[in-house]
Amino acid sequence: MLGNVVKVLGNGLCATQSVLLQSSRNTFVLKRRFPPNLYKKNQKPGKLRGRHFVYDLVEDTTIKKKPNLEVVLTTFVEGIGSKGDVVSLKPNEAYNKLLLPGLAVYKTPENVAKYATEKDEKEAEVHSSAYAQRTVNKLESLILAVVMNKDHPWVIEPWHIKMSLRKAGYYVPDSAITLPETPITGPDLLKQNKEFYCTVTVNNLEKARVRCRIHHWSTEPSDRLPYVFEHWKLDAEPLFGDAGPAASVGNAKPESRQSAD
């Protein structure tokens, strides 16, 4: 009697549920390597042998690539699209980046009509394309080295900035580059590593303020200034004071090798 009581109490106190009992959504499509013989109607089926339980894997749904998910954007999303656009993305990306934050809804005829109407009624978008703001962010995070001659007089022009941007991996036309109103002349070693801003216009709309630093260079190795390792990480003084002169904005469409429009 006492032993039964101890056994019941022990089972109640130490009972645990194994996590292996949880179900998992796995589906495997199999095919018999040696199918059994067919039998006639009302005939007793034959006994299965060991070879009848040998299977070949036809499909494993756990590693099967899932189709893209189409969603309708409820607002502008950088690098994806504008409000009302229907985009097709991988399921994980669509769930985590768009559906859960509320930036998109599932594609249905009702949602497509709803956000298309709101897009038409809304004022003009402030973004020229889905990738324009990404291009602006890239340009504004850049510290552009403008290398000028140390031995001959010069005045910085838009094509100097264009060539410096090309060396950094960006292709920008001259008409998209606007320099400060105050001319920058040289050579002047007092301007070495000093910083100024120029404006790059993307798609005639977005404006990027690019940080530029002047570096003097000589074709004679003996006249060259000492090389500064990772000079872009060092602090630099402004060329025109704290704020610098206001630069007007030009209109053009630059193309970037790192982030295309």
List the helices and strands and how they pair.
Elements: H1 2-13, E1 28-32, E2 55-60, E3 69-73, E4 86-89, H2 91-99, E5 104-106, H3 109-121, H4 132-140, E6 143-149, E7 154-155, H5 158-167, E8 170-171, E9 177-178, E10 185-186, E11 195-202, E12 206-217, E13 255-256
Parallel strand pairs: 6-12
Antiparallel strand pairs: 1-2, 3-4, 3-5, 7-10, 8-13, 9-11, 11-12
Provide tags for this entry.
single chain, 261 residues, alpha+beta, Ribosomal Protein L9, domain 1, Ribosomal Protein L9, domain 2, 4-stranded mixed sheet, 3-stranded antiparallel sheet, 5 helices, 13 strands, 20% helix, disordered C terminus
- Net shape: elongated
Provide the gyration radius in Å.
34 Å
The percentage helix is 10-25%
Major sheet details: 4 strands, mixed
Q: Give the termini distance in whole angstroms.
A: 83 Å
CATH topology of the domain at 132-233: Ribosomal Protein L9, domain 2
Walk across the major sheet and give the strand order.
Answer: 6-12-11-9
Element-by-element helix/strand order? HEEEEHEHHEEHEEEEEE
What is the mean predicted local confidence, pLDDT? 81
Number of strand segments: 13
Going by CATH, what is the homologous superfamily of the domain at 132-233? Answer: Ribosomal protein L9, C-terminal domain
CATH architecture identity of the domain at 132-233: Roll
**Roughly what fraction of the amino acids lie in strands?**
15-25%
CATH C-level class of the domain at 132-233 is Alpha Beta
